[in-house]
Design goal:
It catalyses: ATP + H2O = ADP + phosphate + H(+). It is a single chain. The protein is an alpha+beta fold. It is 40% helix and 20% strand. The chain is globular. The relative contact order is 0.07. The C terminus is likely disordered.
Length: 1219
């Protein structure tokens, strides 16, 4: 019973998705709420502040747990490593508020869509439903499944038949009203945050609350100047933050504002066409597309074709053709029916419809799939509004350091209490002074100083045409040690040059045509395929589309026209495109080719096909183009040349891009029959036509950049959708695979009926024969990777298909392959994302550089995704380079390293600054004294503030070092740096504090003030000394004037300047310190001013700074002590702590190793004499023993019962069959 209760209390939202949340049910209790209110009043609002910072505590204090079905408050918790909480109120919606009668019969549905959650969410006869709003998405309570479900979208369980027949004629006006109430408006509304709200959020930040407490305390003690300076700094910092947030809010608001004001036409059941504003659209509405339009929702096309610009989503402004969802009779979910290619039917919100092509049976129609923030654009806006927290060691370590400093402050608090109570000081003064020491350790300038480094780096990146929408990731770029590159358009030129064609006839390849000859491509079925099998469109008289398609079409010398009355036959629509021979084309028996039906190219399917009609023919022709291996699979085997694989290899190993073509004649005479064809019917039993060879040249920047990254010991990996052999050749030509390195092909196969899944390793051997040097051929002999150096210089290469098999059936083998995997070809977008994630699991810091089209998922998944796009900010990735080559990658890594080192330097400096002041103040507290206001002011404003704000402006070093900076504050060198410098500071200050008391001229002023005042008439004396008739002085707690403070202040101040210099190390990650002119000037000025004050004998300076004049020899001693401390600290920091060779020796001596997973694997594999495997096959099981199985990939239902039983007996076992 208790388990059922707990189960009802907790559920999952968005199960399995990136934004998965746990949701817990709670019910408000009046007594608890009253008690919390009284506690808030008694604590003067402190409890409310705590509840603001910790919403879960508020829920736990005010409410009691209950089943979600009864909850009026829900507590949500993210399922990631951050475990963040949110509190939401359950809202009730009543359908009885609608202006028309609602059917209250329990058995009858409210909406026609029987899959809709609305029917299961509304309670009858009350007509009530319960919902919550989480991060702009609305969820309603499903009374049948007992969980919250998302609304504002059509359920994925709808089949193609459901979509066509349930929604094809439109919704009734009553159903529209119900859906509007339940789903909310179709609007992506970004509120421009009021300034007062932003101000409250900033001010209630825990750090600013602590700062407010600190400043109140300081002001009460008369530290007016310094407090005012910090208040001004804090106000400026808050104003800048608010301005930045407000600007972002305004920009985002303006970006989406027009989205909500689009006028659209819809079809309403029994009422016909209606025009309305887009915010009134609901899922299920039938949208009529009559021309150019910015799509206000996600919709699935059901009739006619569309050409859209998806630049907003992908970063590529290439027209994409959308085709209608087929009218299938089966009950399979519509996305499953189209497999991975379902996106070709979907019009995404925010994309631009640039051309519509009616089918001839009526206007272009689409069914609204998702509205508001459920859409593609809404999802992108939500990712900006609610960014995923960064799990970066620097930020967690920084928090630990601040906690440590706060703890140090608490120690100081109790120390001060003890000292002041011991001297019998009144309790009020005791508490005040103790609280003052508590506030010394945490520097109030910390947030501004840490942010400054990122701001400087962002500005420098902007000058190099690299734009950033996630500044926090800049520091993370300093840790990158693996960069993945897309090939086409990233490593190689975007445009391809035509090299030649190789047609086939009689099951063999014929003599090819060379485009370099200048002769026109001769007419053949291959020429017809090249002229028609593409996704090009004619827009305003200009042919537009994919660059590869454009180049291919130009090679035929044919022209494109819109279908006109003269050419249109058989009831063809005027929107069909026709192809004609151009003036430069070779003589052709065909005058016109009309493209009737198109199945667009998909990266997942690696092919596209069209159905055409050649003028003068009664029948229709289908053409396919795509990856050669994929096209050959759909062709009749007798039409594919026997030497197909060898011929393909000859070209791909030379780095050529190869595309294959096929065709078949369709045995049907009616256009209506053609228009109802499915992709599977068209793409079967084809005749192989031949190959198109295209030359894909490397960009001139590619080789030097890859060489630079290689010299910096940063791994480079190629993830491409192109052919594997082409990718290997490009990798070798670009230097990604160095000369002399071995390449091992990994080929994995799915399990078959009587055979388990297998993985085969084949060595690629370099041979010097053939038309080009360094051609690669698979060697199936007995070659193996040579011993010695050769064993460490090998690279694995595999296809997306093999990766998928490894992921499913050989998951334990995958890390071994990935630590040396360099080439991943024929990868789908989903596989690219998965691969980046797997690299991250090995503790690599992964960068991804791509053109933003098929790389969106991988760009977002990587620690630093860089999109090569002309737009200043691409939604596809955190970084966007307007320079379309990979030079941006080393620039970003350099700036990231400089920013990271600067952040560490600033943090170390501010930690030491707090400790230096803490030690000095603690020593003075021993005799109930303090530094003077202007003494603090000089240290805090003139030195620390100015230095911190300029320390990070040092530019990045122009050359990448062969190692990364430390990635965490709690690393031994950084910790030792703080500990040793704290030790030096402590020793020097204590020695100075004790030695000054030993000087013959020293006396305790508070015991002999009359004598001192009588003999020092030319200097003004602090008013904290009260004279009395006995000639003695009584010290008021918090007095300033003393030889101790006069001695300690210059030591502390010079120490602050010295560590600022020491912690601003230049090479190898930043330029030398002298190149930072403002910082150098401030350091020199601060040091000069301090020395001037130390050695000057001006009455005004001494009275203003509240010093006591001392003899010159003592001042020289103070200065020498500070210089010696600087020399020791500089030697220890530069020669010992920053000495990589010494640390490597220590690690080797004591057996310390990196705990990164990839390092562990590298060590294990280096000791394994059987690795890497070559020319052998491994199996996932022998049918009786164990299996390589990815538990995270398969569900129990997908695994045979026998395998489930075996999993309990054995974890991993396989047998080897050597070839």
């Amino acid at each position: 019973m208790e388990e059922d209760y707990k189960k009802g209390h907790r559920a999952l939202l968005n199960s399995g998705e990136e934004n998965e949340l746990e949701v817990f049910g709670y019910r408000s209790q009046t007594l608890r709420s009253v008690l919390c209110f009284l506690a808030s009043v008694l604590t003067c609002g402190v409890l409310l502040l705590v509840f603001y910072w910790r919403p879960q505590w508020k829920v736990w204090a005010n409410c009691i747990p209950c089943p979600l079905q009864e909850a009026d408050i829900v507590l949500l918790r993210t399922t990631d490593e951050f475990q963040r909480y949110m509190r939401k109120k359950v809202i009730c919606l009543y359908l009885s508020t609608l202006k028309f009668p609602i059917n209250k019969n329990i058995g009858e549905p409210l909406v026609s869509d029987h899959h809709s959650v609305i029917n299961k969410a509304v309670l009858k006869p009350e007509l009530k439903l319960r919902c919550i709003q989480v991060q702009k998405i609305r969820y309603v309570w499903d009374n049948l499944e007992k969980q919250f479900k998302k609304v504002g979208l059509l359920e994925d369980s709808n089949s193609c038949y459901d979509i066509h027949h349930t929604f094809g004629l439109g919704l009734t006006s009553e159903e529209q009203e119900i859906r509007r109430l339940v789903c909310g408006p179709n609007a992506i509304e970004v509120e421009i945050q009021p300034i007062w709200k932003l101000l409250v959020k900033q001010v209630l930040n825990p750090f600013y609350v602590f700062q407010a407490f600190t400043l109140t305390l300081w002001l009460s003690q008369g530290y007016i100047e310094y407090s005012v300076a910090i208040i001004i700094l804090s106000i400026l910092s808050i104003i800048l933050s608010i301005y930045d947030l407000r600007q972002q809010s305004v920009k985002l608001h303006n970006l989406v504002e027009d989205h909500n004001k689009v006028q659209v036409k819809i079809n309403v059941k029994d009422k016909g066409l209606q025009e309305l504003e887009s915010h009134l659209l609901v899922p299920g509405d039938t949208l009529i597309l009559s021309g150019k339009l910015s799509l206000p929702c996600d919709a699935v096309l059901i009739d006619g074709n569309c050409v859209v610009n998806e630049g907003m989503l992908t970063g590529e402004s290439i027209p994409v053709t959308k085709t209608p969802l087929p009218q299938s009779e089966n009950t399979m979910p519509w996305k499953s029916h189209s497999l991975e290619d379902y996106r070709r039917h979907v019009l995404f919100c925010g994309t631009e419809v640039i051309q519509v092509k009616p089918s001839g049976q009526g206007p272009v129609r689409a069914i609204v799939l998702q509205t508001g923030y459920n859409t593609a654009k809404g999802d992108l806006v939500r990712s900006i509004l609610y960014p995923r927290p960064l799990n970066f060691k620097l930020y967690s370590d920084a928090f630990k350091f601040i906690v440590f400093l706060a703890c140090l402050g608490v120690v100081g608090f109790f120390y001060a209490l003890g000292v002041y109570i011991h001297h019998g000081v009144p309790s009020r003064d005791t508490m005040t002074m103790a609280l003052l020491l508590l506030t010394v350790t945490v520097p109030p300038v910390l947030p501004a100083a840490l942010t400054t480094g990122i701001v400087y780096a962002q500005k420098r990146l902007k000058k190099k045409n690299i734009f950033c929408i996630s500044p926090q990731r800049i520091n993370m770029c300093g840790q990158l040690n693996l960069v993945c590159f897309d090939k086409t358009g990233t490593l190689t030129e975007d445009g391809l040059d035509l090299w030649g064609t190789v047609p086939t006839a009689d099951n063999s390849f014929q003599e090819g045509h060379s485009f370099t000859s200048g002769e026109a491509l001769p007419w053949s079925p291959l020429c017809a395929a090249m002229a028609s099998c593409h996704s090009l469109i004619l827009l305003d008289g200009t042919i537009q589309g994919d660059p590869l398609d454009l180049k291919m079409f130009e090679g035929t010398a044919w022209t494109m026209e819109d279908c006109n009355v003269d050419c249109c036959t058989f009831g063809m629509s005027e929107s069909h495109v026709i192809i004609k021979p151009g003036p430069r084309a070779s003589q052709s028996p065909v005058e016109v080719i009309t493209i009737l039906l198109q199945f667009p190219f998909s990266s997942n399917l690696q092919r596209m096909s069209v159905v055409t009609q050649l003028a003068g023919e009664d029948h229709f022709q289908a053409y396919m183009k795509g990856a050669p291996e994929m096209v050959a699979r759909f062709c009749r085997s007798e039409t594919v040349p026997k030497n197909f694989s060898q011929k393909l290899k000859n070209y791909t190993t030379q780095g050529f891009r190869v595309i294959a073509f096929a065709h078949k004649t369709l045995k049907m005479g009616l256009l209506s029959d053609v228009m109802s064809l499915t992709r599977d019917e068209v793409e079967s039993e084809l005749t192989f036509l031949g190959l198109l060879i295209m030359e894909n040249r490397l960009k001139k920047e590619t080789k030097p950049v890859l060489k630079e990254l290689n010299e910096a010991h940063i791994r480079t990996v190629m993830i491409t959708g192109d052919n594997l052999q082409t990718a290997i050749t490009v990798a070798k030509n670009s230097g990604m695979i160095p000369q002399g390195s071995q390449v091992i092909l990994v080929e994995a196969n799915e399990p078959e009926e009587f055979a388990p899944a297998s993985v085969t390793w084949q060595l690629v051997k370099n041979q010097e024969n053939g038309p080009r040097k360094n051609e690669a051929y698979i060697n199936v002999g007995n070659s193996s990777v040579p011993d010695g150096e050769g064993r460490s210089s090998y690279h694995f290469a595999m296809s997306g298909k093999s990766y998928q098999v490894l992921f499913q059936h050989f998951y334990t083998l995958l890390p071994k392959i990935l630590v040396n995997g360099t080439i991943f070809a024929r990868m789908s977008p989903g596989q690219k994302s998965s691969l980046v994630e797997e690299f991250q699991k090995l503790n690599y810091y992964v960068g991804m550089c791509g053109d933003g089209a098929n790389d969106c998922g991988a760009l977002k998944m990587a620690h630093a995704g860089i999109s090569l796009s002309e737009q200043e900010a691409s939604v596809a990735s955190p970084f966007t380079s307007k320079t379309a080559n990979i030079e941006c990658v080393p620039h970003l890594i350099k700036e990231g390293r400089a920013a990271l080192v600067s952040s560490f330097g600033v943090f170390k400096y501010l930690t030491m600054y707090g400790i230096i002041q803490f030690i000095g103040t603690s020593l003075l507290y021993w005799q109930l004294q303090l530094f003077g206001n202007y003494q603090y002011l000089m240290q805090d404003v003139a030195i620390t503030l100015m230095v911190c704000l300029t320390m990070s402006s040092t530019h990045a070093y122009p050359k990448l070092a062969p190692y990364r900076p430390a990635g965490q504050l709690l690393s031994p060198p950084l910790l030792l740096s703080v500990i040793l410098n704290s030790g030096f500071t402590c020793i020097v200050q204590i020695c100075a504090f004790l030695f000054v008391k030993q000087q013959p001229w020293y006396f305790e002023i508070y015991k002999y003030s009359e004598c001192f005042l009588a003999n020092q008439t030319k200097f003004s004396i602090n008013m904290t000394l009260e004279r009395n008739c006995t000639g003695n002085a009584t010290l008021i707690p918090g007095s300033i004037l003393s030889f101790e403070s006069t001695t300690l202040w210059p030591i502390c101040t010079i120490n602050c300047i010295a560590i600022a210099f020491i912690f601003s190390k230049g090479k190898p990650f930043r330029k030398p310190i002298y190149t930072n002119y403002i910082f150098s000037f401030l350091l020199i000025s601060a040091l000069s001013l301090t020395v001037f004050i130390l050695f000057s004998d001006f009455q005004d300076i001494y009275s203003g700074m509240e010093f006591i004049p001392t003899i010159t020899s003592w001042r020289v001693s103070i200065f020498m002590a500070a210089v010696v401390q600087f020399c020791v600290a500089f030697f220890v920091e530069d020669v010992i702590l920053q000495n990589r060779k010494l640390w490597r020796l220590i690690k080797k001596k004591f057996g310390f190793h990196s705990q990164s997973h990839y390092r562990n694997w590298q060590r294990k594999l280096a000791e394994d004499s059987s690795w890497p495997p070559t020319n052998r096959t491994e199996y996932s099981g022998d049918g009786k023993n164990g299996f390589y199985i990815n538990l995270g990939y398969e569900s129990l239902e997908q695994i045979p019962k026998e395998e489930c039983e075996l999993r309990g007996q054995t974890t991993e076992h396989h047998f080897l069959t050597r070839l």
